[in-house]
Amino acid sequence: MLILKPKKDFEVSVEAEITPDLAEKSEEEIKNFEVWYGKYKVKLGELFEIKKEGDEKKLILDGDFSRVKWIGRGMTEGEIVVKGNVGAHCGAFMSGGKIVVEGNADDWLGAEMSGGEIVVKGNARNLVGCAYYGDLEGMKGGKILIEGNAGNYIGEKMVGGEIEIKGNAGDFIGTEMKNGTIIVHGDCGFVGGDMKGGTIKIGGKFDLLPSFKKAEDGWIGDVNVGGEGKIVKI
Amino acid sequence: MLWIKNGIVIDPKNGIEGEKMDIFVKEGKIVEESEVKKEECKVIDASNKLVVAGGVEMHSHIAGSKINTGRSMRPEEMRVVRNVAGKFRAVVGRVLLTAPGIGYEYAKMGYTTAVEAASPPIGSPHTHEELDAIPILDKAALPVFGNWHFVFKFVSEKDQEKLQAFIAWAIERTKGYGVKIVNPGGVEKWMYGSNVRTLDDEVPIYGVTPREIITEVVKANEALNLPHCVHIHCNNLGVPGNYETTIETMKLVSGMKNENRPVLHVTHVQFNAYAGSSWRDVSSGAEEIAKYVNKADNITIDMGQPIFGHATAMTGDAPFQFTLHKLIGARWSNKDTEIEGGAGIVPIVYLPKNPVHALQWAIGLELGLLIDSDKVVISTDWPNGGPFTEYPYIMAMLMSKRMREKELERVSPYVQKASSLPAIDTEKTLYEVIKMSRSLPAKILGMENKGHLGVGADADIAIYNINPNEVDPSAEYDLVNKAFRKPAYTIKDGEIVVKDGELVAETWGRTFWVDATKKVSMEAIEADLDEYFQNYYTVERINFGVDERWVKKPARLEVS
Amino acid sequence: MENVVCTFCGSVCDDGVFEDGDVRKLCALGKSKFSKKERIKAPMIDGKEVSYEEAIEKAAEILVEAKRPLLYGWASTVNEAIRLGVLIAEKVGGIYDQCASVCHAPGTLALIEEGVPGGTLGSVKNRADVVIFWGANPVEAHPRHPTRYSVMAKGLLIKDRKNRKVVVIDVRETKTAKLADIFVQIKPGYDYAIISALRAIVKGEKIEADEVGGVPVEKLYELAELMMNAKYGVIFYGLGVTQSRGRDRNVENAIKLVQQLNRKTRWVIWPMRGHYNVVGAGEVPAWEVGYQFAIDFSRGYPRFSPAEFTAVEALVRRDCDAALIIASDPAAHFPRKAVEHLKKIPVIQIDPHPNLTTLLSNVVIPSAIAGLEAEGSVYRMDGIVLRVKKLVETEYWSDVQILEKMYEEVVKKVG
Asked: Does the beta-carbon distance from A171 to C246 stay under 8 Å?
């Protein structure tokens, strides 16, 4: 297990593509692990206090990581626990393991992830589980659970997996979704624009698009793309 | 001054076929031995190495609104990092490339000249701004004429004098190099939602046909005696059965002759060489086309070879691009341009197991193999057929049946029945592929100082780590493929820009443009220009075009 | 001097007549660009007058020393200056962003999703028998657009205003709406839903709702009918579409509508770009480094991320520690939180005129006015390049001169 604590309030954001794999390395290697601080490549040890306790594949990020981006990028196994907030792109491209964010998550949480689990105890911002610009597929598998609220653009171009939001979500949920499930327990805005497949379940109020047809247990659409996606009230 | 010592030279224009010899360079030119002081020369030991002229790219989309819109609409292409900023510019791009990347990547393959193959006339200042951002290479651009209303008007009036004056005016104003025609008449019909299907379909308002447009423009081009012949992207591109249109188009110039070059260059013919009546029964029309081209004495082509993987279709053939968008459901950009024509862009992936894609790949190679090496130029029509950085692959494939057999194993078996590729035994020689990538394109473009190593030529030289007298390209295709990807040296205007495949210097090449205005009387078209600009353009006539002083390193070629 | 190119809006009219310091034929907005206005008198460092060389050297020092400098503005200068800006951003490992990120960048994001089926303004003038302004009000923002290019323009096939139907779709009855044959008032925030409905109707689907976004469904059927019956139609969209709920999604949906209409007839769609060279501010970086805006070079190569590298995001997130602002006034137009950060970091300004940003700038470099005192290329809203001219002499350095010198200084410092 590896515990990281920021040494200071960063002047600009830090890009640290760290995964639980790091916990297996020697203390020396961990300290020398390269991260980006603005345009400078610096060593992890310069920005963070490092404490290693055994070889378990687990990272404890203790403190405010809201200005640290790309945490858990492409991780395959192990666990990351963020005690506070976390910066953008957390868990992007991850395929396995678990990330727990005890605070809030910034944009692009779990973007294009294909497996594993992300739990956010606070809120998440925009673009959760989305596809990066120009890519044809967003989230492909795994699960994202947000216990608070989420922002706009959730699960765009999703082809698999599940996103669950306990609170409210913003606008454009599951746009161009092809498969998978999105659950919003609270309210949200436009839902399922150009969805081809998959299911969106909503507990609260939402804006139904005119390109959906009433079905027995909800709505089917988007007719504009000959879609068979489902919107269901829970 | 350079002294390239003991290299094995292949220089088709000068009939040199693998001779061990020295080459001397002074002030950016190839000179006689007596011209240099040997003790002041930088000596390059080229022992056991192949020494050839720098490659000449005659059909590529290197600059202007199409390639740039392609970049903007495909950030997933730009995420591939090729070079981190430092001594040289940062370069990104998978198949599409940034402007610095275009210069670097061509140079890293031993190419030193490249021509933008379709510049919208009103967009020519943009084309030139991008050309000026491409390092190392010498460049030029071909403005498109085939759907320009002035051309329709003068062709419909059968007024050669005006047509010639207009072409000279337009090339001067756009700082262009020659005449490009894209789907003549068809792009104008697209403005009404359709396309032309035969050479005799009429264009609305003007009543002219593709047949008339092509014939008259070629006549005008020949009367002006421009360095480059008319460069045509035929009608019916991408339509099964189109090979007949292609041959019919070629027949339009039969009987016409130019001493120095062909009178018609038909470009990316692979896309215009389909037999059959639909995508279900499509097959290759390459043999028929090859038969015609080989027999004709005034026509050349380039391959338009697809490379498996990502590509971006971008042409001035706007209706074709829309058809492609409907066919594959991908993103689609379109630009209708004043009264000049249009363009479109659609991303595409060529998959080896897809029967149509495999057939396209086979047809490109058939053309390269079946057509005489003094009539077919290597091209991928970048980025339409894929990356130009795969020219070494194409060269190796043309030289090795064994390599083709191996490649055939991984492509759709559809090519076995729909093309003749598996049965072709021809193996082009090194001499021939050097011709197809150097002296032939230079000849077609009318660039006398390019594509060869004779005294007086520009000192654009590529040196590769193969000895033509020892290598067997038929068997050692991997070696050849690798060697052409990594020149020992690329020399541009006498300066070493690439060493061992790595960039070592960034230089800035010239932009060639052709001035034929002295051959015509501009007065003939003054009134027409004024009338059309006033009524149909949205810019003032005086604000149209490019002044020479805006171009970084212009090189004017006067036609007399 | 005749055929003078105007440097106000994206229409870039090129028929101005400049005489004795006055310009004719242009609209009031255009004329204002050529009239005398207050100028920044001299280069300054921390309020003290210095030479150009000193100010530029100081600016280079700030940019080189910063961890992540932001270089923002660019929409109101010439391409040659923009190119140098991109090169400097690349050299110093900073962020390049331009004014589009607060206006029409959603159009670029939509381009990424679907491409843009478009045409030049000349295509519209010559051919368009149906013109739709959606969330755009050219009468006030692009005053000569209706006469030169769209509403009243005559051309090849359209010989008279009567040959053309003009539709305005907006949340309020604008001045442009008064020129229209049809005005459709919609509920704010429902552009996306209305476009989805139009797509469904064009596709032949039945709409189950009675109204969409405040518009009765019958009216949408009429509108769809009009669109399908056009010979050549155009949608010009404005900030009402890009800066309201839905942003890039609205544009993307409209593009999909146009894709579908092209299966029946001809349609194009185009943004009503604001500043005279905001298009160039995107085109130039696209060919130099592959992207149009929101570009970060901190890793030595360009990366594109609107959620991180637009000027507002970088400032609000305190993710830049120095800024160069050229031909723009973020202090007046950016959100309060962004301006607060701008106040805390070293700021370099290049501008002919003083504005609110001048007040918080550490290094101020006055420049010649492009199109009046300096020449260069600019891109009209439809990508057509025009060359703005130098009409009068000046002592001020042009943006190009300033940035050339700055690039030189930066190269000296970073190699």
From this structure: yes
| Residue C232 belongs to domain with CATH number | 3.40.228.10
Supply the pLDDT for residue C415: 76
The pLDDT mean for chain C works out to 97
Q: What is the pLDDT of residue A231?
A: 98
Chain A CB within 8 Å of residue B71 CB: no
Number of domains in chain C: 2
Q: Which domain holds residue C262?
A: 105-271
CATH class of B53-445: alpha beta
How does residue C20 score in pLDDT terms, banded at 50, 70 and 90?
confident
Q: Are residue C121 and residue C137 in the same domain, yes or no?
A: yes
Residue C318's domain is classified under what CATH number?
3.40.50.740
Residues A211, C200: C-beta atoms closer than 8 Å: yes
Q: CB pairs under 8 A, 24+ apart, for B294-299?
A: B294/B370, B294/B371, B294/B372, B294/B375, B296/B250, B296/B254, B297/B257, B298/B253, B298/B254, B298/B256, B298/B257, B298/B258, B298/B262, B298/B263, B298/B264, B299/B250, B299/B253, B299/B262, B299/B263, B299/B264, B299/B265, B299/B266, B299/B375
Task: Tell me the shortest Cα–Cα distance from A134 to chain B, in angstroms.
Answer: 5
Residues 6+ apart with CB under 8 A from B120: B64, B65, B127, B143, B144, B316, B335, B337, B340, B341, B343
> Does residue C290 sit in the same domain as residue C260?
no
| C291 falls within a domain | yes
Q: What is the pLDDT of residue B560?
A: 86
Q: Which two tokens stand for residue B160?
A: 């050669």
| Contact by Cβ (8 Å): C237, C136 | yes
Mutation to test the B interface, candidates C145, C301, C378, most B Cβ within 10 Å: C301
pLDDT digits (tens, 9 = 90+) for C340-360: 999 999 999 999 999 999 999
Q: How far is CA A118 from the centre of its chain?
A: 7
Burial class of residue B479 (count of CB atoms within 10 Å of its CB; 0-12, 13-18, 19+): middle
Cα–Cα distances (Å) from B109 to B9, B55, B60, B105, in that order, read 17, 8, 15, 6
Residue type, C213: G
In whole angstroms, give the CA distance from residue B253 to residue A196. 52
Domain locations along chain B: 2-52+452-503, 53-445
Regarding whether C79 and C120 lie in a shared domain, the answer is no
Nearest CB to B540 within list C3, C283, C383:
C3
C15, C83, C290 ranked by CB distance to B71: nearest: C290
Q: How many CA atoms lie within 13 A of B251 on its CB side?
A: 12
Mean pLDDT of C71-100: 98
Is ipTM over 0.90? yes
- Give the torsion sign (CA, C139, C195, C114, C269): negative
pTM of the model: 0.97
Given a contact cutoff of 8 angstroms between Cβ atoms, the answer to whether A86 and A118 are in contact is: no
Name every chain B residue with its beta carbon within 8 A of the beta carbon of C93: 85
Q: How many CB pairs under 8 A join A and B?
A: 11
Place of tokens 């436009």: A190
From the list A87, A17, A25, A86, the residue with the least C-alpha distance to A57 is: A25
- In chain B, residues with a C-beta closer than 8 Å to the C-beta of C15 are 540
CB atoms within 10 A of CB C299: 16
CATH class, B2-52+452-503 region: mainly beta
Q: Do A13 and C317 touch (CB under 8 A)?
A: yes
Q: Distance (Å, rounded) from C-alpha A57 to C-alpha A55?
A: 6
Interface probe with C: pick from A17, A208, A211, A214, most Cβ of C within 10 Å = A211
Interface membership of C375 toward B (CB under 8 Å)? no
Give the tens place of pLDDT for each residue, A144-185.
Answer: 999 999 999 999 999 999 999 999 999 999 999 999 999 999
Report residues of chain B scoring pLDDT below 70: none
